[in-house]
Amino acid sequence: MVAAKAATQLGYTLLGLVLAKPQSGYALRKVFETTPLGNYSSSPGSIYPALKALEKAGLVERRSAAGGGGKQLFAPTSAGEAQFGEWLARPVDEEAMARHLDGVLLRFAFLQFDPDPGVSRDFLISFEAAAWARARALEAFLDGEAGRALSLHARLAVGHGLENIRSSARWAADARRQLGDKAEEGNDDEG
Amino acid sequence: MVAAKAATQLGYTLLGLVLAKPQSGYALRKVFETTPLGNYSSSPGSIYPALKALEKAGLVERRSAAGGGGKQLFAPTSAGEAQFGEWLARPVDEEAMARHLDGVLLRFAFLQFDPDPGVSRDFLISFEAAAWARARALEAFLDGEAGRALSLHARLAVGHGLENIRSSARWAADARRQLGDKAEEGNDDEG
DNA sequence: CCAACCATGTAAGCTGTTACATGATTGA
DNA sequence: TCAATCATGTAACAGCTTACATGGTTGG
């Protein structure tokens, strides 16, 4: 049990991508170039060092590709799969909601690889709860002593955050509905 | 004209705070502790080095406080004020909208210090335009080849970003209205 | 043969963080 | 005098970026 070192956010992203399909560093760069994934740079200086770190941590391994040449494919190890699953299952808390929303959404996107639809459901439930909690905190701030002392500009800026959080909460409810609709085609879970 | 080096985001934040009122590093830390400003750590290891960098760049200066002891106040220099004003007046582009929204909102909050209400208005106009542009870009992505190939999870994740951007755009329109209402009490600008 | 793309990497640096360290002042 | 708070700072590192560097392959 080699208690693998925690991967970085970018590391988990790469782990998720090679878990979906083993691929080369170059192919991974193309993903970052062509999709709004994370918001990470697709430059080689970002991707290759991150892959190397994952390899060193024993979370991915590289295989020589069939095509020959120096080309190589990255694939997750079993430790990598396990740690990725752990990452995915983390509940969403208010702190993550406030400061690492991008990472939280990234995690949600990768929940497609969890065979248990209950994990996605739990994720969205905790997401929505954390969002409303954060919204209440911002409302309390605006209504409190410090908040009332703010200028209109500052209040509006905080209000922007509040509106975005509310939008996120509504999104979670809607996403849960959409995933539920999809699930109904197959089986049924306790509500 | 000593072309002062550009401050960092945290640097501009501190610059804005000392512009509002010259204060000590400790007092600045308290602001970060008690308000959702930026999302910066209030730890001394964040604030003091940043202040030192601003001082080195000639954007703030320190004065010994009246109270005696080692206590000192930071205040903006004229170069600091000038550069802060420049920072404030930057138009909002889609790139900033997508990747540095926090910083953009921070700038808006500090626009309270610009005596010309037209700057705030222009800011919100470009903000709204950039938001809708970003929304259209995400819509185009979802409707495009790459987007349609995504799993429901991934589509929902992108959809979250889209909803947030729309929320931001609506906020800008509302904020403009609120600032306009306030302005009507005073004078009138060409519409 | 040359341009375009495939493919991989290193070096240096920026921005900010946590953890550590220190000392003065104030009030119970 | 002892704890809490005021007040300032450094050291080490994390995580990512840009810029640089290199070479293979493929097609016109």
Structure in words:
- The structure is a homodimer of 191-residue chains.
- Chain A has 191 residues and is mainly alpha-helical.
- Chain A has 2 domains: 9-87, Orthogonal Bundle (Arc Repressor Mutant, subunit A); 91-190.
- In chain A, 66% of the residues lie in helices and 5% in strands.
- The first copy, chain A, contains 9 helices and 2 strands.
- The first copy, chain A, has helices spanning 9-20, 25-34, 44-56, 78-89, 94-99, 101-110, 117-143, 145-148, 152-184; strands at 60-64, 72-76.
- A two-stranded antiparallel sheet of chain A has the order 1-2.
- In chain A, a hairpin with a 7-residue loop joins strand 1 and strand 2.
- In chain A, helix 1 (9-20) crosses helix 3 and helix 2 (25-34) packs across helix 3 (44-56).
- Chain A binds a DNA duplex (28 and 28 nucleotides) through residues 8-10, 24-26, 29, 40-41, 43-50, 52, 69-72.
What's the quaternary structure here? homodimer
Strand tally of chain A is: 2
**What is the percentage of strand-forming residues of chain A?**
5-15%
| Largest interface, C-beta within 8 A | A-B, 38 and 38 residues
Biggest sheet statistics of chain A: 2 strands, antiparallel
- Rounded radius of gyration of chain A (Å): 20 Å
Order of helices and strands of chain A: HHHEEHHHHHH
* DSSP helical segment count of chain A: 9
Task: Give helix % range of chain A.
Answer: 55-70%
Detail the poorly predicted runs of chain A: none
Largest sheet: spatial strand order of chain A: 1-2
